[in-house]
Structure formats: C-alpha cells, structure tokens
Amino acid sequence: MTSFGDLGERQTVKMIRELLQKEDSPDSMDDDAALIPIGNEILVISTDNVTFERHRPEGMSPERFGWMSAAVNFSDIASMGARPVGFLSALSVPEDMDVTEIAEIVSGIDQCAEFCGTHVIGGDTKPGHGSVSGTAIGVMEGRTPMRRNGARIGDVIAVTGPLGGPAAGYHSMKESLGLEDAEFCLTTPIPRVNEGIALSASGIVSSCIDLSDGLSTALNTLCESSKKGCIIEWDLLPKHEDTVTVGEMLDIPLESLVMDFGGEYELLFTFDRNDTDALNELDIQFHIIGIITDGNDVVLRRDEKYRKVTDGTY
Amino acid sequence: MTSFGDLGERQTVKMIRELLQKEDSPDSMDDDAALIPIGNEILVISTDNVTFERHRPEGMSPERFGWMSAAVNFSDIASMGARPVGFLSALSVPEDMDVTEIAEIVSGIDQCAEFCGTHVIGGDTKPGHGSVSGTAIGVMEGRTPMRRNGARIGDVIAVTGPLGGPAAGYHSMKESLGLEDAEFCLTTPIPRVNEGIALSASGIVSSCIDLSDGLSTALNTLCESSKKGCIIEWDLLPKHEDTVTVGEMLDIPLESLVMDFGGEYELLFTFDRNDTDALNELDIQFHIIGIITDGNDVVLRRDEKYRKVTDGTY
C-alpha cells in the first residue's frame, strides 16, 4: 500500500482533484477557494481544517489560535478578491478541555471575522481531538475572481508585504527570544481582504495566490497552475526585519525563513509591467520580486547564481 | 475549571451562540444551517465535522463513511428547504492511512453530492487524526427557509419516514446480525432534499428539523426554539421493521432504538392540521406522530402513560 505520509499532501490533493474531475466540473477546483455563480453574483467559498496539535505553536493563546483558524480561510477568499459575507466554524474539542478556552477560541474567531467585516453565522461543536474547520464565504460584487492559472510570460510578480515574519515569530516563541513584532505576525495574521478587493477591482492582475503555505510553495503552485516558470530576485524580496536576527541567533538560513515557512498571509500576484503606474494608484503596498518565464521551474537568483526552488518544507 | 465533557455538547453550543450573539446577528444562528441573503437569493450553508473515531462504526467502509459525512450536511440544508449547489470537504488524514482508502472516502462524498444533484467544488486535505469537515451550500430559489422556531400550539408533528433503522443497523453490524436493510439505512443515509424542497415550496410548514441527532433531541431542540411543548403518540411512530428484531434479540428497549440513536435523516416538521389535504397532494411520504402544546416539555404517550422525554443519549 501507499500511505498518505508516503504520497505526501500535495500529491494526495492532486489525486483527489483528478478523482473528482468531471466534464462539467468548474475549472476553479484548482484554486484556494471555490466559485459558485448565484444569480448575478459570484460566491467564493473556502474551507480549511487547523488542528491544535499541528497548527498551534507552544505559547499561542486559544484566542490567537481562533483568530488564526479564521484568518486562513479569509485569506483564501481574499486572494480571489472576494468581500467576506459570513463565517462558519466546526469545532472538534477534547472532552477535558476547559470551556473557558473554548470560549477564547470562539472569541478569536469572532474578532477575526469582525476585522474582515463580517460575522460568525453558524457552525457546530463536537467532541474530538481538537481542531477548527472554518468556512469563509465571500462575494465578488461584479469583480472578476483572481485565479492561480492566469500568469503570462513576462508578467512581473509582486507581494503585498514583508516575508518571514511568522517564521521569525515561531522561533522567537519557541526559544523565548522576545521578538514581539514577529510573534504578532505569527499569532495575528492579517488576511489581505482590502488588498484583494482593490487588486481584483483594478482588472490588472493576471493571477493571485496567498502565501499561507509559504513563498516557495505558493510560487510552485501558481507556476504549475499557469503552466509557466519564474525567476525570483533574492535582493528584491522584502524581508521582515526579525528574520535576520533569528537567522543569526539560531543559525537558520535566511532563505529558509523567508521562503519556506508559511503561516503568512500576504498576497502574491502577477501583472503586466506596463500596468505598474495603474497599480501604484491603488494605494496598496506592494513589492515586485520577480518575473514569469516560459519554463516550468521556479528559480531563485542570488548573487548571480541560479537555484531551482522546490515546494517548501511546510 | 469546567471541562467540555462536564458542560456537555448542547450547553457548550449554547454558550458559544450567546458569545457570538450581537445586535445585528442573523436570528438563524439557532438553526442547523446559516442563511445569507445574496441579491434576490437566499444562501443556505451548513458545516459539520465527523471523525473516524466517533462516527465510523466498525465495519463501515471508507466509501460509506464518505457518503455519510456529506449526507450530514446535505440533510441540514434539506431541512430548511434548500436546493444544493455545491459541497466542500476538508479532510484530516492520519499519515499511515492507505491512499486507496482516502480515494474511497472522496468517492463516497462525491456519490452523495451527485445524489443530491450537485458536485464537490473544493476542499482541503491535511494530516490529522482522521475526520471530514463538510460544507454544503444550497439556495432557496424564492422559497421561504423552514426554521426550527415556528411551531404553533395545535400544529401537528410529522416525520417523512420510519425511525430506528440506523440504530438497528448499528447493532446489526456490531453483532453481525446480518440485517441488511437496517445496515443500509445506517451506512447510506438519504438526505431528504426533494422532500425539503417540496415542503418549503408548499408554504404550509411552520417548522422543520432533521433527525440526525435522533428523535428525542430533535423534538427537544425544535420545542425549545419554538418555546412550545409537544405530545408524541408512541403508537403513531413509524418504526423501522428491524428495530423490533434487534430489540428482542439484544434486549434493547424499543423506545431507545426508535427515539435516541440518531444517524437518521428523515425530516420532522409541523403544520396546521387543516392543511393535511394540501400536504397529501405533495406526493411525499409522511406520518403524523403528535401535536404541539403550550407547555415546555416533550412528552411521550404510551399505553395511556405519559413520560417526559429528555435529550437523546447521542
């Protein structure tokens, strides 16, 4: 037999997608969130399961875990340009868990939903090993959903903010380094809802994905969906300032902190370089980090050397 | 501290609802599924987490578990009268699980979605203890959603089919009794999508709920939401024929099999008795089992004796 561990997460997801593919399947199966046309509106829905065991770093409060479990899903619909209209959470809770902690998780979910301009509108609570399955619902309001598969050769690649903050925060919490800003990045990821709406409204963006699985994985996923390659310039990558500190203190390669960790929620998107001025007018922060090529590989250029970047370790 | 086990599932859900209640919260928080108005359409969404450990009886194949995990959610939106338009599944999978089994679970989910007239349109797969978090999405198409809180004094109470089949099936599988029909009820629950649509389209129904948590719990939930009581007539309850066999063979009280087990997906609904003829014209099966009263209690009348029915053991 082949186990899930043997096949790996990404290949298993591929297998499932192929299994579910039908002639009349929507072609959005490939994206973070699913699209459903409802009358004149397009609905955008994402669901994700985060577990206490795997996604709650030591020292993260129940409230922050709740926030994070909601942010994962809001980020997925933000990457398509949707405005959130509701959130559902299915909690699986160990029998011996303090109900105060449950209340704190729910409060964190609620705060994140409010931050994203919406509410928790339903859900479910059952005994289990400890996890939150969130479902975020959004609407496109006439904008065209940004997909993963639209990157064109020659498009530039940009991200909405600095990278590696959550990685630095994770190590800071684990080793008690006290890097508060980085720790905040990890425990309170900000879904880029406004950025997603502005980017999709602009009509400029050819493809978009969030960085919740890390830059390496996001680039590989976007390039694979778009059937393109890319070159990323190391010097152009905006790095969270604490990544350097953590890298030096703990002797962790900076590249790994910036590219492979995940848990961050900036958007990565592509557009025609001739539209840079129009993008500047959107009043959102962005940093150009590379260019789409006609190959299949994600390539990092650093100090005049080229390295093929595979999926992150996350 | 008070643990989740101490407080219990139902009280915890109540606590969470109170925590999330805001002035502008939708009043549908009380129902199985959440309502979102989108343009002229009303969206109905339900999410539920089922675990291998708790919801997969010994002998249930991965495929049947997949079907069941989807049916739970389709049943929730069916009870409001929605037509399904999509399904998402977030799988949590143990590392050592055979990928063939994962494929079978997904196939079961897919079959159930197709049976309900829709598709799996997205999801997520992550390592974990083994669970499926499903999200079913439906639309009302102009019909008014059936809620739990609309039962009126004097309304009659009806169910769409025989009760206790899944309970009998569970014991049959456990004790190898070979009661195929009952086992099929357990492993292939049929969400009453067409019945829900017909009932909501009729405009006759004052309240509705599915029986996935069992008759006792459903009656208590519906009466509590409607701030009413009810009297159920034991002799009127349609009992799956295998319940009697199982009860006698294993010395289990028939009342417990018929009322407390859950895992069944008939709809329970209330309506004005003067509308019985109109309901007969809908071409759906139903059995009147009792009447709504002005008390707070769910009461079972059997052999001229009255017994207060509390929440099921499920």
Notable characteristics:
seven-stranded mixed β-sheet; homodimer; 314 residues; alpha+beta; 12 helices; 25% strand
SSE order and pairing:
Two copies of one chain form a homodimer.
Chain A: H1 4-7, H2 9-20, E1 34-38, E2 41-51, H3 52-55, H4 62-78, E3 83-93, H5 99-115, E4 120-127, E5 131-139, E6 156-159, H6 165-174, H7 180-187, H8 193-202, E7 205-210, H9 215-226, E8 229-233, H10 241-250, H11 254-259, E9 267-271, H12 276-280, E10 287-293, E11 298-302, E12 305-308
Parallel strand pairs in A: 3-4, 8-11
Antiparallel strand pairs in A: 1-2, 2-5, 3-5, 6-9, 6-10, 7-9, 8-10, 11-12
Structure overview:
The structure is a homodimer of 314-residue chains. Chain A has helices at 4-7, 9-20, 52-55, 62-78, 99-115, 165-174, 180-187, 193-202, 215-226, 241-250, 254-259, 276-280, and strands at 34-38, 41-51, 83-93, 120-127, 131-139, 156-159, 205-210, 229-233, 267-271, 287-293, 298-302, 305-308. Chain A is of the alpha+beta class and 314 residues long. In chain A, a hairpin with a 2-residue loop joins strand 11 (298-302) and strand 12 (305-308). The model of chain A has no long low-confidence stretch (mean pLDDT 92). The interface between A and B is large, with 75 and 74 residues.
